[in-house]
Each structure stands twice: as structure tokens, then as C-alpha cells.
Amino acid sequence: xxxxxxxxxxxxxxxxxxxxxxxxxxxxxxxxxxxxxxxxxxxxxxxxxxxxxxxxxxxxxxxxxxxxxxxxxxxxxxxxxxxxxxxxxxxxxxxxxxxxxxxxxxxxxxxxxxxxxxxxxxxxxxxxxxxxxxxxxxxxxxxxxxxxxxxxxxxxxxxxxxxxxxxxxxxxxxxxxxxxxxxxxxxxxxxxxxxxxxxxxxxxxxxxxxxxxxxxxxxxxxxxxxxxxxxxxxxxxxxxxxxxx
Length: 245
Known about the structure:
Strand content: 35-45%
């Protein structure tokens, strides 16, 4: 597995935290090998010095308590880093999406990630349906938000949960009809170093793997439509990730 330290730049603000992706959709040098019969169809090893615009685009604009900016995205040495920082009282962060570049339906997806998270923010590796919530009660057609892993330093009660991640399925939109099913805290020691997070999505279920071990599986809100990949760090104080320091 690739190893890296998160970039620290005190001059940029009060906090510098990072989501680092070393491997995506590739089994090379990773402990979680694709199941038998699977073959590679898409990958990004981040070998260049800038984001590959044929595979990703970066959100821009307000999101929760931060402003998304491409300036929070760096690529170098085989790593993608999303940095969340605060300057002059404004929080900045990043969300990357493969929409318009690549979508998948079923398969095995994985990323090698090192989380460096602080209170009030969280980082995630997830899938999103562009039609999520369009047909209430029909996730086969509408799809769902499939959170492969979300990492927080603290929970809503400011309890330290740095060692764990959570996996969640969201469906029926984000308004009055929103529903979700959650794994609770899974894994151990996940706040330090790189770990491999995988999703096996077949015609019946979602299975979540961490470092090659299946830690959660569900048939709830099963999606049978193509979905896009997203990598993100988000900020929201006084919410499920605690209070921004």
C-alpha cells in the first residue's frame, strides 16, 4: 500500500485536514483483491501533477458551512489530497465527482484512503445516483446514495470516533421522504495510515470491505441504475461531526 503524510500548511488557516486517495478501482498493490471473474474497467492512480479532467471535476461554490474550491485539490507523488482549511473565518474544502466522465452499475469499487479529520468535518468515498429520489419507493429505478465510508473525528456528542468509519444508504430524496440505513461504527484504527475501502455491488446487495474483510452488507434500498463516484470533505458545525474548533 502507498503511504503518505497529509500536507500541513499553517499559513493557509486554522486547520488543515485531508482525504488522500492512493488507489481507485485497481487491485494492484492493494490487500482487497477484486472477486474472481472481475476485471478492471476504470482506474486513476493519480500519477500526474494535476487532476485528470477526463475522469473528475471539482465542485465550486457554497456547501453546508464551507465553500468548495478546486484550490483544495492537489495531485502529486501518486496521491490525490483534498484539504479542508480555514482562512479569514471562511472554511474551504472540496468535492470531486466522476459525473459526466464515468458511471457504473454493479461491480467492485475500492480506494486506498488515509483520513486526517478534525471535529466539525468529515470525509467520504461514495456513490450517488443522478436520479436519487425521483421515484419514491423505487430505488431500483431511482438509485440511492451509497456511502462506502465516511470518517469523522467526533460524533454529534463530541465523542472521539476517529478509529471508525460508517457506511450508509440514503434513498427517497433528502426532504420529507428521506430514509437511511446505517452500519454504525465499523472497523478499528482507521484514523491512522492508509486503509483500503471496497464496495461489492451486485444484483442483490451492497457489501462493504475494509482491508479485505467484509464488515457490513445489506440488501436495503438496492439500486439497479448507473451511479457516479464522489470523493469529498465537508464541513458542518454543531451537526453529526461535532463542533468546528
